[in-house]
Amino acid sequence: MASRARIGVVTDYHVGTLERHGGDEPHVFLNARYVRAVEAAGGRPWLLPPPSGDPAGAEEYLAGVDGLLLTGCGRHLDPEAYGETPRFDLTLMPQAKQALELALVNGALAQGVPLLALCGGMQSLNVALGGSLIQRIAAEVPHALEHMQQDKATNPAHPVTLVPGSILARLTEAETLQVNSSHTQSVGRLGRDLVVSATAPDGVVEAIEYTGPVWAVGVQWHPEYLYPADPAQARLFQTLVAQSKARVPARR
Ligand code: MN
After folding, report:
1. What is the pLDDT of residues 109-137, one digit of tens each?
2. Segment 167-177, tens digit of pLDDT
3. How many angstroms separate the alpha carbon of residue 160 from the centre of ligand 1?
4. Which has the closest alpha carbon to 197: 120, 126, 108, 105?
5. Is 42 exposed, middle or buried (0-12, 13-18, 19+ CB in 10 A)?
6. Measured between alpha carbons, how far is 5 from 229 in angstroms, rounded to an integer?
7. Is residue 219 part of a domain?
8. How does pLDDT run across 15-48, given as a tens digit for each residue?
9. Which active-site residues does the annotation give?
10. Domain membership flag for residue 1
11. What residue spans of 66-195 are helical by DSSP H?
12. Boundaries of domain holding 123
């Protein structure tokens, strides 16, 4: 039986979700939609929790997977990671998660591990390569759209225009997409060897991709809520799995 590509999926980490356990127990967790989207695309999800104080964790994780999915968690990178101080009251992600994501991006690109980065994961892709973030779209982008939709994420919130000839335009075979939007930050200065592949009507960067020899695409929206209703969104996961599948013989 053919082996499925192992797709490492970074989990979230949170303290204090179950009151009956005292409300202060750390939990690793993940919206199951990410896992189901990988499965539906023919991949085998392998969950990667942020390691506690282990800088070697990213290297060991990378050695065990064929591809990577960076997920969104609704919390922010420390602006120090891109050489800034906080201009707003940000909700920072745990240091272990930030360290893991940034190390995974650099390790994946160095070792040829394909990478799909969603929402906050796309921001990690950019920052890991030396880029910066717009810390609060509503305050720092003139005439910005509402990027924090209030209705269900299965409902698209705004269009994005794709850059012709980009990886994203070719794999979706689209010029525009209708996407959901659940983010307060976005890409500012682009990281090295990255290009923009989609923008919102207000100019906010909605997708980026790597120009080097490794397949790496980031989108600011949540395709795990839009597939399978929108086949173009399913193709993001299918392409990640196909790119990763090519690495299976090398790992075994
Ligand atoms: Mn948006």
Report:
1. 999 999 999 999 999 999 999 999 999 99
2. 999 999 999 99
3. 8
4. 126
5. middle
6. 24
7. yes
8. 665 566 666 777 888 999 999 999 999 999 999 9
9. 119, 222, 224
10. no
11. 95-111, 120-128, 137-140, 167-172
12. 6-251
What is residue 132's predicted lDDT score, i.e. its pLDDT? 98
Q: Is 24 left (phi over 0), alpha (psi -120 to 50) or beta?
A: alpha
* Ligand 1 centroid – CA 42 distance (Å): 28
- Long-range pairs of 35-41 with CB within 8 A, sequence gap ≥ 24: 35/9, 36/224, 37/223, 37/224, 37/227, 37/234, 37/237, 38/7, 38/9, 38/69, 38/237, 38/240, 38/241, 40/227, 40/228, 40/234, 40/237, 41/234, 41/237, 41/238, 41/240, 41/241
| pTM reported for the whole predicted model | 0.95
Residue 159 token pair: 């269009």
CATH number at residue 240: 3.40.50.880
Q: For all residues of the chain together, what is the average pLDDT?
A: 93
Residue 54, domain member (yes or no): yes
What is the count of structural domains for the chain?
1
Residue 60 covered by a domain: yes
- Euclidean distance between CA atoms 223 and 225, whole angstroms: 5
Cα of 239 from ligand 1 centre, angstroms: 22
Torsion of CA 188, 194, 198, 203, to 10 degrees: 20
